[in-house]
């Protein structure tokens, strides 16, 4: 029930064999072990899936190649063409040397050191008492691992980027990863592309989109993008979301934005903004400010409002204008006043009134033939007179104000 002598032996070999060491009554149940040193006994049976069980060649047939046989490595140091690599692998099971097999267990113990030096490639395949393959391939100076733990693939290829470098491409499917770091972490990346994709626009039961939670506790956090010496040429940030909530709680917040041009567009059915502060200071410095509002405006101020304009103000109202003041209204103009109404005018005063003119008063109507230049000269004269009588106006105003308060 041991090995049968084969044909076509092309060299010498030494065979140590223990056939049917379990004294089985049938060849199917027989267990054997052997060690053959030298030439292959029967090249026709080497790594043959249909070889007798006692030879172990049915198991050897599971390993006939190495990853490096077809690895892309053109241009790398010590380059060997694929044909040379594949030709050597083709002799893997027929070249001879050391061949052993056991239908039982193999246990090796070493009390001291153990050194193995392999000039060629190395491959380990473990079936796990079934047909689930796991193991690793060490060929061409690289280590590749494979198992059923996480479906996926891994490849290592030579690329001419960065004056020549090895590129590792990995894909993992259906694998849970829990990572815990206890220590310092320093991550440096340099390359042409760094791309990260989570989920997809078309999730499925097999490939669902995840729920993402990111929490950070730290003594300090600093984030920098680009620098003054080398700014980022372009930067784009796009968010599509059903509902977004953002909360920031801080003792102090400083925000600074510098740009040649800023465009801000907001589109919404309803916008609500609430600001609560002891003091708000808003300073805007620019050559021209243009503001356009299309829609009704309801503006309420509870408190004192002071508006100072150093320059010229023009207000144009196309439509009806209503102004209601519940309380005392004081208006002081130091300079000329030109009031032109191209329409009928009704002025009603339901109360005691006082009109004071310090200087000359000219009233013009369409019956007069004065030109606008004459009106302008008269206003200039009035402005000079008002400047000379400014103190008198102030005294009259104070007296008038006092009478109103007493009344």
In short:
It is built from four helices and eight strands. The chain has a domain at 359-407. The chain has helices spanning 57-60, 82-90, 372-388, 390-406; strands at residues 13-18, 33-38, 97-102, 122-126, 134-139, 142-146, 151-159, 165-173.
Overall spatial form: rod-shaped
Average pLDDT metric: 82
Considering DSSP H and I runs of 4 or more, what fraction of the residues is helical?
10-25%
Q: Pairing-aware structural class of the strands and helices? A: alpha+beta
What's the arrangement of strands in the largest beta sheet? Answer: 1-2-3
Largest sheet data: 3 strands, antiparallel
What string gives the helices and strands in order? Answer: EEHHEEEEEEHH
Rg is 47 Å
Please report the number of helical segments: 4
Query: Which regions have little confidence, pLDDT < 50, spanning 5+ residues?
Result: 1-8
Beta-strand residue fraction: 5-15%
Strands, count: 8
State the separation between the terminal residues, measured CA to CA.
133 Å
